[in-house]
Amino acid sequence: MALLTLMFVVLTACVGENAAEPAKTGAESTSDGTATKTEKPEGDTVKVGILHSLSGTMAISEVSLRNAEMMAIEEINAAGGVLGKQIEPIIEDGASDWPTFAEKAKKLLQSDQVATVFGGWTSASRKAMLPVFEQNNGLLWYPVQYEGMESSPNIMYTGATTNQQIVPAVDWLLENKGKKMFLLGSDYVFPRTANNIIKAQLKAKGGELVGEEYTALGHTDYSTLISKIKAAKPDVVFNTLNGDSNVAFFKQLKDVGITAENLPVLSVSIAEEEIRGIGGDVVAGHYTSWNYYQTLDTAENNDWVANFKAKYGDEVVTDDPIEAAYFAVYLWAAAAEKAGSFDVDAVKEAAKGIEVSAPGGTVKIDGDNQHTYKVVRIGEIREDGLIDEVWNSGETVKPDPYLENYDWAASVKPGE
To answer: pTM of the entire structure?
Structure first.
């Protein structure tokens, strides 16, 4: 059985003895339809929501997150469940459409009255869901790196914030690959905010912005944009494209003779899963910035990778968002056990500073902002589609979503 399952059994035994009895059971709704959660649901199960894009342009990334969450749920259920209850997942498809994410989140909270939701990938989907969770006092576990400048009381962020991915990646590029940078991204909040941060960082660190372009999610014709990149003569491209646009971009880049040797690209939204769709031979030698890679050589990770492949097939891979989606379920379960309740406010309070052992190492929730501590890892893509780490931060980095500890970031405002 997986390492996290074993740790969860121990944690359950420790906190279960002292868990407070709930004051009441069941769930209610207010007259305006907003959900109000009581401490324990009736029956032998507790409902949780899983809300990812199972169709559309983002399905290339998000289907695997659902699989990871389902694996964690099955492991926890096999170990006895949470507070004596089996987890019952309610799965919804956000369909790569942001209003649909908001609609499905509302359904999960108000109609299904789930205890928590695991979901999202793009910041646009998260931004669409955020007011729904805040209005209904729900709790979303968001598993993907993002642009920072946010800390909702109703979201737990298990992916990296900017100072745990983008900022150290820019520093590494400036030191190792050159000063002239071309910024390429999908046209929505994450790439635009991330690039505003990068521009402020370049200005402060002596870098040079030689181009900045955006394309719609799902865009597939990059011939004109690649001509602009060639004309700008950057030392490196910083890529914040999301979804299957990356397939088209990298294949067309290679078709015109641009390779990692003559123009390296560093990406922050493609990992092992997306590389499967692009082709390792197409992106070999290019770089990524994440906090976990499948090639991490520890006994815990090797066991988890083997278990994941045993469940979903030898051809599947693990990656950073998959790992963050997986351990998010364990963090929620551990916090509920510690709280002795599924009540959102009680779980949030119990989650402050809580730790679990994950495939990539110990993860801890920062009680100040509901993000997780992360080791930063720069990786180089191999021809077989896996990623070799070429640099890491050594220690876990405390999340700083508003970049309060970076003087040069003072001009960057939330929502930009």
So the answer is: 0.90
